[in-house]
Structures are given as structure tokens and as C-alpha cells.
Amino acid sequence: MNRRNFITNAAMLGAGMPVITSAALTGCSTGEKKQKLLTPEDVGMFSFADKAPDGKPIRAALIGCGSRGTGAAEQFIRSGAGCSIVAMADLFPDRLNASHKHLKEKLGNDVPENACFLGFDAYKKVLELPDIDAVLLCTPQHFRPEHFMAAVNAGKHAFVEKPCAVDPVGVRTVLAAGKIAKSKGLTVVAGTHLRHRRDYWEAYLQVRNGLIGDVICASAHSNQGAVWYKTQQPGWSDMEYCIRNFFNIRWVSGDHFVDQAIHFIDIATWFMDERPERAVGYGGRARCKSGDRFDFFTVDYYYADNRRMWTEARQIDGCDNNFSDQIYGSKGIVYMNYMHNDLKITDYNGNPLWEYAYAEKPIKSAYQQEHIHFTESIRTGKQINQAEMLANSTLIAIMGREAAYTGKAVTWDEIVASNLRLGPTTYEMGALPDYHEGVVPVPGIAQG
Known about the structure:
448 residues; alpha/beta; 9-stranded mixed β-sheet; 6-stranded parallel β-sheet
């Protein structure tokens, strides 16, 4: 991850294709160059089939049995014939049992009791089982880098939920594991599910074909109401509380700017096709009822040639909600409204240039589609490896978070080289002296 080798060519890593710009595809006729329009195949667009093709049964292990893990397991089972969950791992019996019951009663997928493991080392026990083809990594994200590296070393295909880490140290582990996975021919699909929507891909194709001219800047918005939280219960140690309340604990989740806004940062990064040079931001804690995180952020990312990306993220009730991206070009604007399945391109006078045909090509749930792509890649041998893409987007989000925490400009060089690591280095139930409930970063210098 050096300074000049970031996202150029990374936009298509998920499909194993290089970036091909329209300027590179020209032909000569009567002495003049003519632009050749790109096709979906040129940019590596996914198939968007309703089901993965039939083939050899795929036996997967679920690591992290909370609500997201259970949802991912269900989507994997439904992705194609012969897909099943054959092992499970979690820290807590109640979560594992609830997930096990759901898969058995709703989907008829009954995981044997001797293939269900508990504890911080449960993922290791799963990976030691014979005949495991793939893993679904759905624990709180602090643990993702270690689990991903272990899965790749064990030769398993991996579905890796977003974000892939909470700090730069973890991101570097994911990058290394991704390279190993590529060398082994393993499929790696990321949980940045918007990359698996057909309407987003078709809009991307329009941008690559020059419909909006040169891409100048972007905005990414992740604004919603307050989300779930837990308070510490009698009998819970600090460690158990932090993990059960992970969404609200910085060292476990990375804060919601990393955990949630990454979806829209990832899309803007994809369309911008470049990494930012520095970030300046602010944020704070206005309504949170537990944990040690912020509940609002605004970050301004600066790129080469004076290009910009503005990102905001808020989780406060009673405010305007907005899940969207806008990509601004020299000739027009791409509007991607995730809340309303509304994707269109207009010029700066509001005249329509292009609009996705939802009636003709309905959108399947992106959460389901990413697992269809996962299964399809494994069965066809057409490798998808989204590890680097996910790592880059995660690091951009971490860069913005740290800019907001400190109130200072954070450069790409600084965040790439940073030794920042969040959380404990040993994992056991008990006290966490370095965790302080409700204490959040305070940017700047207090006035006397």
C-alpha cells in the first residue's frame, strides 16, 4: 500500500478484472480516433443470476452467530443447491443456540452438536474440521483480521463481513491474507453489499463510458436514527459487556463511521477510482446511551487535482435520514439513493441522461446477491478476491474517523504507516482496565 499504488486497478479486483477506461479503447477510422463503448464484460460485471449454478456441495462454517451471522448463513444456504452450514463458532451459548435453532427450524439445516464450538479459540476448532470448504466471518470486526488470516492459511474460501478491521494494524493483516488467498486461488467476497447491486454496476458502466465526463468529486451519506445498545448487566465482565455491546464500543466495532458509513465510502471510492491524500473531519457524542463512540461525523477527503469527497454519518433519532451517494462529473451527476431504489444520472440542469430500468430488471437483495456471487465463484473457478478492495475502503474510513477524533488533518501516508491498534492483545473474560465507559476522544485543545 504505497503512496501511488492504491485504488488504480482496485475497482475491479472483486471480479478479477483490470480497470479499462474508455480512453484506452479507441479505434482508427479515416484517420480519427473513435471511442469504443465498454461492455459489462469489459468492466467485469457480475452475472446477477437468480441462483448460483449447480455443482459440488459447498460445506461452510459460520464464525460469529449473532443476527448478522445468522442472516449471512441463511443467505449462503439459499444461494444455490447443495450449500449448507456444517459447523458453528461463537463466544456465547445463547447466540449459538439461537442461530442453530433458526437454521434448523427455518431452513432444515441441522448442524451436529459436535461441530458447534464456544470460546475465543472456537474459530480454530472449526478450521481443524475435515471437509470444510468455506467460512463466513461474521464476528465483531475487531477479530476479523486474525480469523481471516487463519481461514486463508487453512485453505478456505471466505465471506468477510465489513469492515475488515478497526485499525491500520488489522488492515495490513487483511491485505497480507488477501494476497495469500489470491495465490491459493481462493474466493474472497466482502460484505460491502452495495458492490453486488446490478443498478450500481450499470451506473458505473455509464460513468466509465464518459456519460458524466471527468469525475470531479463525490458525496457519501450514512444518516439514520439511533441503533441498538446494551447496558452492562450483573455478572458480565468488562470483556463480555464490550463484545455483547460491540456496536457501541470503539475497540470492537471501530465506531459507526467505520462500521456503517463504509458502505457509502466504498461506493464513492469505487466511482472516484482513486485514494484520498488527506482527510479533515469532526464529530461528537450527542445522544449515545452506552459505550464510548461518537454518534455523528463529517469528514472532508482531499484528492489529487483538487478533487474532493465529502462524507457524513449520523445516528440520532428525530433527524433527516439519508443513505446515498452522489458522483459529480464535468457533464452530469449520478444520484444513488439506497433508501428508495432510485438511481439516475442527470445533467446540471436536471435533464435526464440515464435511469436504471427497475421494472425490467428488478433488484434482488444485495445481501442475497453477494452470496450468490460467492457460491458462483467457488463453483465456476472464476476467482473473486475482494480483500484488497475491502481493506482499502476500511482504511479510508479509519482515516476519516481518526481525523474526526483528533481534529487534525490525517494524511494517507500517516494512516498507512500507523501502528494504531485498538483493544486488548489477550482475550479472556474479565476486567479491561483500558476501557472506560462513556469516555470519548476530544479533539483540539481546551480553552483556558
